[in-house]
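Backbone shape codes:
===
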Amino acid sequence: MSLDSNQRFVSRLTRNTLALILAGGRGSRLKHLTRWRSKPAVPFGGKFRIIDFPLSNCINSGIRRIGVLTQYKAHSLILHIQRGWGFLRGEFGEFVELLPAQQRIESNWYAGTADAVYQNLDIIRNHDPDYVLILAGDHVYKMDYGAMVAQHVETGADMTVGCIEVPRSLAAGFGVMQVNEAGQVLSFQEKPADPEPMPDKPDMALASMGIYVFNRGFLFEQLIRDADAPKSSHDFGKDIIPEVIKKYRVQAYPFRDSDSGGQAYWRDVGTVDAFWEANLELIGVTPPFNLYDDNWPIWTYQEQLPPAKFVFDDPDRRGMAVDSMVSGGCIISGATVRHSLLFSHVHVHSFALIENSVLLPDVEIGRHARINKAVIDRGCVIPEGMVIGEDPVADAERFYVSEGGVVLVTPDMLGQVKHYVR
């Protein structure tokens, strides 16, 4: 098959694919960052939300029929999608459709990932796709889903599971699978206590990314069967996949870098440590995840803000940021920012020092404050002279300190009761 005909083949498949993004997760391991928002709505990368990455992957892959399934504290997420993702043209059959838990079939809310899709079967039928792509809404990565759908069709699979290689020591938090030489899934265990290693890599395990491609009819059959199973938890990883591999063809799709052929970038920013680390990775000279890639843009809602401003140039009062990313609307007023990421509309006042930290939108840092190795949540006003990140014992008395020593600060912890829904 020639390159041009292969591209047309993939474009036909993606045009007939419906993507469903599961975005109802609580994200409890992110602690106070998800107290007033769901995990997919958590800000990431200076100007984005986590949900923007799977949504952008869909658009860049040519998949423009998308449903976003919401549940836990979804107002912030809904506002973001309404504001930033309304550019698709409905008259061309393109949409990003919000599918909140609304008890369409059952009298319960979404009981699991499979149940969330099952409760929207009538909507899926109405869209009449050939293939259904199911995505997690809380991971950061770039992926061409078209290649995965094409492999699904070419191998004659009933279901395809996206997978990555992870260190065996970390694999207990994933669904772990074993495959044969043809890539067919032979076994699947959801979050096993003792993950089975890859045959040729004893220190690694093959883990599910929570990305699935189904033939439409096959998906309907399996969801209806699972809904009728009284002992099922109605989850794709726990229930659907282990049952399906007994009788049907389930294919693994290895997620690899298209240039090097090695493991592609994929992050589950599900803990405070992982969130802090993944954000600060972005400011590197050659970061593992390039936000400046014109060939794979990340789309989002953008406030109309002025450029970042750095003021004062006195020897002891110089507004500067080094080895950092600073977003629009920020003012660095006679303060120093080092190896940090500042989201939009952050104001750092004179003589303050920010190091190794992530400051979410609308944060204000008072004069002479010192902050190191911290995540400052949206809307925090750090008082003049406050020191964060230098005394773990004192920090733990006021704030949340992660296992890795990252200090998480929210307005509530500062006595500033600002229940931000944004």
About this structure: The chain has ten helices and 31 strands. The two ends are 48 Å apart (CA to CA).
